[in-house]
Design brief:
26% of the residues lie in helices and 23% in strands. The protein has 8 helices and 10 strands. It is globular and about 50 Å long. The two termini are 33 Å apart.
Amino acid sequence: RGGAAGARRLAAQPRGSMQLAVDRGPLAGLDPEQVRLMEERVVVVDRADRVVGPESKVNAHLNSHGPMLHRAFSVFLFDEHNRLLLQRRAPTKVTFPSCWTNTCCSHPLHTPDELGVDDGAGLLGGAVTGCARAAIRKLEHELGIPLDTFKTDDLVFLTRIHYIARARADNEAAERAEFGEHEIDYLYVCRTPVAGLRLAPSANEVCETRFVDRAQLREMMRAADAGELRLTPWFAMIAEQFLFRWWEDLDDPAALLSHREVDEIFRFGECARAPLVQ
């Protein structure tokens, strides 16, 4: 499991109709490739992260539908100097375009591989393995990192968060204000020497990359607070609540694993209050 062979299988999705008819109306005039990707089927879950079923990415991300709570992952890739690789999302992205964010953040698809159904004895019933497979697939799709760079075990799962973030109509992407995120997000850390890292970002996904140390990231967070640049909401939450503590223990695998929380889902904002209607 994992690696190139496992990740290549992920592109195929099972046949069958969506739970709801795909609502293409809000996608009118947007980038054709991004529109195509919005027809993929993501994993809708309940507050306990139990699978409800598949749904198109566009329907799951419409504010008029909640947005629907669905499963996601966020990868934090560090080099041997403990610098974190960041990406800036392309202006063509449907949700939170042109924002700086962590190395890679996307969604597992509703496929057996990315649900992890073959790893039922694994962490969280195989979901940790499934999301890691999705991460390997998307690291290649977004950043051009070859599929055989990482195996699923190279991605160290630490915890899950539950958050909601709706786009605002007062930013430069006002035409996309009908979209948002409502996710249970699986968080992973991985490391690789920068000399051996092959990056070839897709211009349709990523418009800029950079490695940052802790001080540089804190400066970016200050700049975001001042309105000088934009961070994705989930990245800002993770950085403020978890990332710097993890960063201190990167050189000690046992200490890093001490931060792992398998059973708890950390909830932010309105997700910490009464259950949200999906």
